Amino acid sequence: MKRIVCFHLLNDYSGSPKVLFMVLKGLLERGYKVELVSSHGGVLDGLDRYPGLKRHYYSYAFSDNAAVTMFRYLAVQIYTFFFSFRYFFSRDCVFYINTLLPAGPALAGRIMGKRVVYHYHENAFVKGAFYKALAGAMQHLAHEIICVSAYQASFLKRRKGVTVIPNALTDEFIGRLHPDPKAAFRRRNVLMLSSLKEYKGTGRFLELARRLPQFSFTLVINDTEDNIGRCLTDIPENVSVYPRQSDVSRFYNRASLVLNLTDKTKAVETFGMTALEAMSAGLPVIVPTVGGIAEMVEDGVNGFKIDVREPDRICECISSVFADEKFYSGLSMRALEFSGKFREKDMVDNIVRVF
Fold first, then answer.
1. pLDDT greater than 80 at residue 151
2. Do 190 and 334 have their domain in common?
3. Of 102, 126, 171, 191, which has the fewest CB atoms closer than 10 Å, so is most exposed?
4. Which of 132, 164, 196 is a domain's end point?
5. pTM tops 0.70
6. Does 222 map to a domain?
7. For the chain, the helix, strand and coil percentages under 3-state DSSP, each to the nearest 5
């Protein structure tokens, strides 16, 4: 029986650890022995109830100071590099590297002759030199690379050993969603789940709310209340802001339309987990015009693709969606139908085949 040793840098409630949670849960349910090396305090802590899992913790957090963050990152890479050698004599052992960031254990795995599988969630080639260097290292260190979209895979020079496996949602999460197009249309509530990073479009979301005072807006930020309070000021009266959440299903159940306002000139979404979550709740979406997230949307069918730098078009789109219940219901039903292609079991089965 294979032992899967998984390395993930930051255990929080963002997309990549949510996907990792599904994969590891699926492996444990299939009888694999799994060891997880990561920080604590996020969605991966929910795996502790599975007896086949062994956890190894370290402390890690981002800092507002880039130099401090880099120091912490390098410290974790050195620690996990040497930690990895405890598996030197372990046979039939796979090193599962989630995201580009755990480069230290990937290097150690290759030195020891272990099978190294990367689950590549980012698109390094639209980021800075640091991420591009990590992507270059991945293409040399990995035996297999799992990409989450064809768009993402197209940037890799390497073609052999690259598999596209789209993300999925847990059956448990889908079970907490209650699609109801009629009720959603009446709510006229625009939702965005985001972070405080400038390219994620939080400021643009607030500006849209100011321009559309007749609708309600909900913003869920993957950060603490203190950081949100420092960064966001002059919040319009029709906007409700919430800090990091362990379960976001209730926000989808109270929404009508979901936005992703990532600026494609600064970052590109390789998949779009919030868009999939929204469509699984029967909610239309407005997303950027490029990236893996754009592959999920057929314009005017289950949502819309609009550049965030065109706020007039976004405002017009929101207004038109909320002006016609029949049009809205069609978008809703087609969004829900499309989401059925992304199921947990299929994703895990495909990843098991890669292992």
1. yes
2. yes
3. 171
4. 164
5. yes
6. yes
7. 45, 20, 35
Residue 124 shares a structural domain with residue 265: no
Do residues 257 and 191 touch, judged by C-beta distance below 8 A? yes
- CA distances in angstroms from 38 to 57, 147, 208, 254, listed in the order given: 5, 21, 38, 33
Has residue 79 got a pLDDT over 90? yes
Rounded to whole angstroms, how far apart are CA atoms 303 and 272?
A: 13
The total of structural domains in the chain comes to 2
**Burial degree of 277 (CB within 10 A; 0-12, 13-18, 19+):** buried
* 216 and 239 fall within a common domain: yes
Averaged confidence pLDDT in the chain: 94
Instruction: Please report which helix (H) or strand (E) contains residue 105, including its range.
Output: helix 103-112
- Pick the last residue of a domain from 164, 194, 216: 164
Residue 352 lies in a domain: no
Please, which pLDDT band fits residue 275 given cuts at 50, 70 and 90? Answer: very high
User: What CATH number does the domain containing 199 carry?
Assistant: 3.40.50.2000
What confidence tier does 236 reach under pLDDT thresholds 50, 70, 90?
very high
State the burial class of residue 63 (Cβ atoms within 10 Å of its Cβ: 0-12, 13-18, 19+): exposed
**E strand map for 177-302:** 189-194, 216-221, 239-242, 257-259, 285-287
φ, ψ (nearest 5 deg) of residue 229: -60, -35
Q: Which domain holds residue 19?
A: 3-164
